[in-house]
Amino acid sequence: MKYKQLGKTGIQVSELCFGTMTFGAETNEKESKNMFSIAKEKGINFFDCANKYANGESERILGECIKDCRDDLIITTKAASRVGSDINSIGLSRKHLMLELEKSLKRLNCDYIDIYYLHYFDPYTSMEDTMRFLDDAVKQGKILYTGVSNWSAWQIMKAIHISKTNFLQAIDCIQPMYSLVKRQAEVELFPLAEDQNLAVVPYSPIGSGLLTGKYKNRNVEQSTRLNEKNYYNQRYIDENYHNIADRFCSFADERGYDSAQLAISWAMNNKNVTAPIIGARDSKQLQSNLEAVNINMTQELKEEISNLSITPPPAHDRLEEFVDTNNKLR
Fold first, then answer.
1. 0.85 exceeded by the pTM?
2. Which CATH number characterizes residue 187's domain?
3. Is residue 296 part of a domain?
4. C-alpha angle 32/205/92, rounded to 5°?
5. Per-residue pLDDT tens for 103-146?
6. How many domains does the chain have?
7. Catalytic site residue 53?
8. Which is catalytic among the residues 53, 178, 236, 257?
9. Are 142 and 114 in contact, with CB atoms under 8 Å apart?
10. Per the domain annotation, does 58 fall within a domain?
11. Could you list the residue range(s) of the whole structural domain that residue 18 is in?
């Protein structure tokens, strides 16, 4: 396992981040703890969670896992999603974030959270008020660094501007969706992260299972995330995504690669990616995914894989100025 700088924070994290969304949901507590131990033994020091996962159970189990090694790890969690029936139990208001931060600290059984993510953008709350809350929480020592997940580039830059002009804690990390079938982050988010020296910790590098080959021939019989969760199914409903996945899985099979491992390796070898988040339902799946670090992702292999997908056009959408007659970038 290699380690990389987390943006401008000065701390180092493993090149893979272990996502604990399955803890207490698809995976029982005993197996969750076993997976945590496997990940830690393999050198992972970076663990991702959220207050919403399994209605808080994921945080509680993770808290049990880290109680004897808390300070050796980088622990993240998030808030913004609806977590209760009260009308205000959602969003990025100071009230909601204050209450949820305290609940997360209690469930995680720790005094501080390394990275606290704003899980979604909230158009109804003053961004300055949200950024001031994060600044206060950092000054109180309850969180060390801040991040945003599922935000667009303009929203992130607006937050950075507010932070700089008001001398508030700045954003340190972004968490976009990114995989061979979902490459939108390459257009503006990755260049933004490089320019502002932000860590990039993308989720769903295997496209919620689409890039594992599980859905080849449109198999809908087995128990999988896309089949069980309608919102995942909607996320990948475009037939182009399935066609890309089919080409990729055939490519992996022909060259003797495990498709999930290859998909993770492709994502983690983007120059702007700090550490993709991997997840698993059981120890066997986790151990297999961890082997992604052993793939020799040469530039040639990376380009071959990229060519199986569709490179998104630049933000200004004038691709013709950047390609030659052979459709290669100038």
1. yes
2. 3.20.20.100
3. no
4. 75
5. 999 999 999 999 999 999 999 999 999 999 999 999 999 999 99
6. 1
7. yes
8. 53
9. no
10. yes
11. 3-209+267-290
